[in-house]
Amino acid sequence: MKHKQNCPNCPDSPTRQVFVAPEGGRIVQCCRCGLQFAEDYPEIESADTEIYGSDYFRASLEEQERRMGIFDQLVGEVESVIGRKGRLLDVGTGEGTLLLAAVERGWEAEGTEIASVMVHHIREKFGLTVHQGVLEDLDLPVHSFDAIIMNHVLEHVSDPRITLEKIAELLSPGGVVRIEVPNLASLSNRGKNFQSRFGLKKNPWKHYSTDHHFWFFTPRTLEAALEAAGLSPLSISAPAKQWGGKSSVDNLANALYRKTLWGGHLVAYAGI
Ligand SMILES: [Zn+2]
């Protein structure tokens, strides 16, 4: 295990303990910007097989058809933000469904993925371009992507600041990055934090998923992370459901969550 003790947003700031993870290791909070993170991060060589083996992707593979619909809408949203199609990079593409959705919508899209089992799957099943490895180690042309997507990836990386600085380097002028992470400040997580803190929960802190999540963002700390890496935040929202509900009650709840930033999905757009 690698030791990590500094906040990527403000390296000189002290931290305080939030809780000790069930797997061992502490979850701490930066005393300056408030970002919460795991103090230890596993070496990436072991993460490829120990965390991101075929079991990790089983649910995604089984739900590929439903995910195709979601990602078609997600890429459509990106198109409406930048007003055109072009070159797209899906960082941590997993089983490759988002990549496929982008290609089918007419994007020139490629992906990155550290899990070798998924890299082979994407190349053989879809014949799409996917670069194996950690984004910051890949040799990709600078300022060449009109859209970069990190869908539930930033909470997994070894250092968000290094990852986001690489994204700033890869974005074309006028291009945007769309980042989605779990929202630690969601209404649901606020309740679970309270229950965990006061011993009212059977499995306290389970909602942090500390076996494969290492960074725990709120709207405020995600914005700080973007700015620390030299990106310009364009919008931050927190919908309860990704693409609206089926009923008017769902839609009303979603509008409220968007306004209060209390939904479970934290979505940020940023440019350079
Ligand atoms: Zn900080």
Structure explained in plain terms:
The protein has 272 residues and is α/β, with parallel strands linked by helices. It has a single domain (2-271), classed as Vaccinia Virus protein VP39 (Rossmann fold), CATH 3.40.50.150. The chain is built from nine helices and 13 strands. A seven-stranded mixed beta sheet has the order 8-7-6-9-10-13-12, sandwiched between helices. Strands 2-3-4-11 form a four-stranded antiparallel beta sheet, with no helix packed on it. The protein has a two-stranded antiparallel sheet with strand order 1-5. It is globular, with a radius of gyration of 18 Å. The model has no long low-confidence stretch (mean pLDDT 90). The structure holds zinc ion (ZN). The site of zinc ion has 8 residues, from loops.
Give a quick set of tags describing it.
272 residues, alpha/beta, Rossmann fold, 13 strands, 24% strand, binds zinc ion
Compact summary:
This protein is of the alpha/beta class and 272 residues long. It has nine helices and 13 strands. The two termini are 34 Å apart.
